Each structure stands twice: as structure tokens, then as C-alpha cells.
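Weekly puzzle thread! Below is a chain. First person to post its structure in C-alpha cell form gets bragging rights.
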Amino acid sequence: MADEPLLLAELKPGRPQQYDWKASCETWSVAFSPDGTWFAWSQGHCIVKLIPWPLEEAELSCKASERKNRGIKADVRGGGGAKEKTLECGQIVWGLAFSPWPPPGTKERDGLPAPGRSCLILATGLNDGQIKVWEVQTGRLLFSLSGHLDVVRDLSFAPNGSLILVSASRDKTLRIWDLSRDGKQVQVLSGHTQWVYCCSISPDCSMLCSAAGEKSAFLWSMRSYTLIRKLEGHQSSVVSCDFSPDSALLVTASYDTCVIMWDPYTGEQLRTLRHVPLPPALDYGGDIHASSLRSVCFSPEGLYLATVADDRLLRIWDLELRTPVAFAPMTNGLCCVYFPHGGFIATGTRDGHVQFWSAPKVLSSLKHSCRKALRTFLTTYQVLALPIPKKMKEFLTYRTF
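Winning reply:
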């Protein structure tokens, strides 16, 4: 079993102002920029904090933050000359997504920055159905996207730098936006019968997965914006989904206490990870064994998963072993995300806090590195068509690890 995750740092919002609504302090989303230089935190009360990464010592000692040092300083040391920014969004913030970094050599148009083309941007999904798009370096609002009729619960940028943005909403639709065309709405994806909680674009930009308050997840083509298939296997609402870094695997998490790992190309279920109560000696949650899942995410090398559940635990799973290899006690967890370069995990809570946990640092085996490189451009069907031994095909398609 891996070492228990250590709490490296915890950030807490400052004293909230007086608002008319009561339930507005949750951290529904946290996100790292793809290069790991910025961290975004929806800290409740309509505010998003943009924090340069690594965290600065001065920042950790200020009123709005609290650090719990467990002897590991390297992961939270200060860095860079960028300044923390506060984005006043005017509505409760539910979803966050950073754009990929602009391609090298991108030039500005007519002397003015083309939004997202020459800068890193952050999209925020709001309570009133709007999406506000911000320039990270300056904290400037670039534009607002209107179309959704209810809460924008999640957002996902295409990783290829095309500035295609997908939004998931409680209005039961997903919408596709092209930010390189001033936020033009490209497509509306309908078919869900419940609130859409989560959306995830595959790293190769060929597929989109969406999870709603239904027992199945939907898999869409990012080329034709049509439904490929429904992934059926859960016994309750699917609430979170994520693709592996090579696009060869998809995981879905549900209120049924299970994570299912799928081959997105064939729709086949490869593994089921069940969240069972811990033995009494390890039980951090008292009498509570409500293991409804809230969030799931892949580690950067694709060999581990992190999950947050209502039983007050952060779990780290080894996909080869099919079991959790580490646990950490956390209360009221809502979301989790890995640092892009590995080594730790950020989690958000109902109290508006964000916590940073150590995670196993993995040196991938040569054979896994080769598999990951091949699967980045080969589908399952293409692998099965190769003139290679059956055992090698099973390994390359993750039937074996």
C-alpha cells in the first residue's frame, strides 16, 4: 500500500460578506492550468481566486489562507512574479476550465489580443446559465456566453488548442462554443433527461463524455457532434467522468458507490471499482458509510485514479491492483483534480476550502510508456487489427496491465 496522502496545504476563504442566499459557499470546482503555473478555485460567494503556482509563502500566511505543513515544503514553495487575482463573477460559480496554452508563434490580430490565441484563458460556468471567459494574466473579462437556461455545471476545453469549449448544464443540454470565433455557439447536444453534471473531452479530441442524473453516460463524437453510444452499467446517477491521458480508457463515477472503467471505442466494461466501508480500525467517517461518489480523475501517467465520496474519504486507486492503495480523511468533499505533472491532488469542499494532498509519484514502466504512446494515435479496433500476438493486444487495450 502507498503512503497515506499528506495534507500539504489548506486554503480557506476570508470572512464572507452578507448575502441573501445561504448555500453559496461551496467549492464546486478547482482546476490547474495545463502547464501547472496557475490554480483556479471557486471559493463560493460568486468569487474565483486565480493563484500563481507554486503557492507563495506570503500568500499562505495571509488571512484568507491557512497552511498545514507536514514537513513537505518543496511542493508549496513560492514561485514567479505573477500576482493572485480575484474574479468577481456576480453569480455562484459551478464550473471552471482553463484553455490549453496557445500554440507557439501565435500572433495578435490587428494589434489587439485575439481572445485565447495569445493568452491563457479561464472559463467560468455560472448559476444563471452564463459562461464568463477571462484572460488569466490580467484578470480581464473577455466576453460572456449566453444560451443555457439553467446552471452551467461543468466546462471542458478541447486539448488541441482549437479553443472549442463544451459546457454542461442543468437545462439538460451540452453546448459547443468556438472561442476563436468570438464565442459563437456551434452546436446544442440534446438527449439527456436529467441535469448534466459533468463533461470531459478525450485528449485526442475525438470524443466527449457527458454524465447526467441518469444511470448511463453518453459518449459523443467531437467530429460530427452526434451520439456514439450510451454507456450502461451503473445502478444510480452518474455524476463524474474522465478520460485517461492516452484516450484509451474512460472512467465514470456514480451515486451507486462504483467507478466503472470503460473502453470508449467498444463500450466494453473493463473494471468496476467498488467503494466499500473501511474496517473499523481505519474508518475515518464514524458511523457514516454513505459512499456516493462525487468526483473521479485520472493521474497524469494514467495508472492511478483519485475519487472523492460522501464517506469522508479521498481514495487513490491503483488500476493494476483494482483496489485503493491510499486513503485520506476529508469532510464534505465535492471535487478532485491531479496536478498536471503529478505528485499531488487538489480537492474542494462544501465549506469553500481547497486542500492539497500528496500523491504517489510514479515512474512509468517502459512497457506502459510504449503503450501510452501507441494508444495516443491508435484506437482499440486498430490495435486489434495489428499482426501481433494476442497477449500483446490484451496489454495494449488494457485488458491486462
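Puzzle host: Confirmed. Bonus trivia for everyone else. The CA atoms of residues 22 and 134 lie 27 Å apart.
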